[in-house]
Write a structure and sequence with these properties.
three-stranded antiparallel beta sheet, single chain
Length: 248
Amino acid sequence: MPSTILDEISRQIDEARADLDAYRPQEMAWVQRAKVTANGLIPWLESNAVGIKEYVEGVLNAPVQLRRMWPDIRAQVNLPKEQIEAFDRQLTLDDVLREKVTGELISNVVTKYLLKHNSRLQTNGRSDYPDIYVADLDYSGLRAFRRARGEEKLVYGAALKNDRPVRVPDGLEIKTCHEAIRVDCHYPHIGLHICLIYGEVGRVFTVTDLRIAFLKTSDYHISGRNTEATTVKASFNGERFVSLFPVS
């Protein structure tokens, strides 16, 4: 019998056991918690993958579609010329803001869909990892977040920040990639990652895939530091990821 996506992610979590067992605070039993998240989220993500694709495409392509519809609408609108020209001018100005659609914007669109359609999910702060956490999991065993200094910065662990669990390996990180999975970040985050892959032709966007993986530390490539001022980069590719889209 072919393995399911959940089977594959469960296997990846088992492969990350050494990382998860060492992750602080160790008494949180991160392997078990990661599997609880996977068991609850992956079947739901599979059933909503097409919906996510359609929603993201609909949001990103709305300005182009509106511009395409406008000539027919304009011909049938019985309004003063000044109002029609003002509306046309606003469409043109709005288009300027959308000349460059960033990965962060697309990630925000994905996040909006997830929060709207799954009441178990909550979002973290903008600069916090992971992007999404499962709100009905018990995080009361975490200490309060505080800024580490000196050698403490080398110790990465989970904490509660403004009552939200940050740096937990049982949440969901959201990434968006143009054409292929190539991601750079500041730290090798252990945990479940979902990557939306998209293409763009003539400012029309197409979601080509939605892929998922549970990453461990060794799945990241860590760049060397040239100077003390250089930021170390952690990067990963799509090798570990499996598609959430239904097999055609």
